[in-house]
Amino acid sequence: MKPQLLVTLLTAAAVAGCAPLAPKDCHKTRALDACTYHRSGKVSDKDSYGVQASGIKKALDAALTQPHAWNGKRCNVHLDFKIDGTLQNFIIKGGDKDYCFALAEAATRARFPAFADQHVYDMMGSARWNMQGQP
């Protein structure tokens, strides 16, 4: 029985190979590398999508009259942009009523960054955003 178990384990190892273990949508080349997520649009990402998301969030935060008053508040919005960064639509989907209203007013004053990449614009030019107040 032990030789059969050994053959099974060796077969499983040969089939699995040395592919890095990674969660869904994680991109890495070696098993010990950190995950990078492409096209997630998180402000903390270091890719072009994260840079664009960070620019949009910073523009809104800078236009808020009292940016730190909204710590812990959330607002879900749908934003439509032109490729030059001009905001076309700001549609509130839900969240803290006062924070959402403050964001809507700030959006009229904000100067959003232009989209430098067509692929980023295709993914983020018309998208839903989960905004969070800064501490």
Fold blueprint:
Elements: H1 2-16, H2 48-63, E1 74-81, E2 87-95, H3 97-109, H4 118-124, E3 126-132
Antiparallel strand pairs: 1-2, 1-3
Helix pairs in contact: 2-3
Tell me the span between the first and last alpha carbons: 62 Å
Radius of gyration: 22 Å
* Biggest pleated-sheet summary: 3 strands, antiparallel
Number of strands: 3
In terms of quaternary structure, what is this? single chain
**Helix fraction bin:** 25-40%
Portion in strands: 15-25%
| Molecular shape | extended
Q: Which class do the helix and strand fractions yield?
A: alpha+beta
| Number of H- or I-type helical stretches | 4
Order of helices and strands: HHEEHHE
Order of neighbouring strands in the sheet with most strands:
2-1-3
Low-confidence runs of at least 5 consecutive residues: none
Question: What average pLDDT do the residues reach?
Answer: 81
Describe the fold and architecture.
The protein has 135 residues and is α+β, with helices and mostly antiparallel strands. 38% of the residues lie in helices and 18% in strands. The protein has four helices and three strands; from the N terminus they run H-H-E-E-H-H-E. It has a three-stranded antiparallel β-sheet with strand order 2-1-3. A hairpin with a 5-residue loop joins strand 1 and strand 2. 16% of the residues are buried.
Which structural traits does this protein have?
135 residues, alpha+beta, three-stranded antiparallel beta sheet
Summarize the structure.
One of its GO terms (biological process) is bacteriocin transport. By secondary structure, this protein is of the alpha+beta class. Helices cover 38% and strands 18% of the residues.
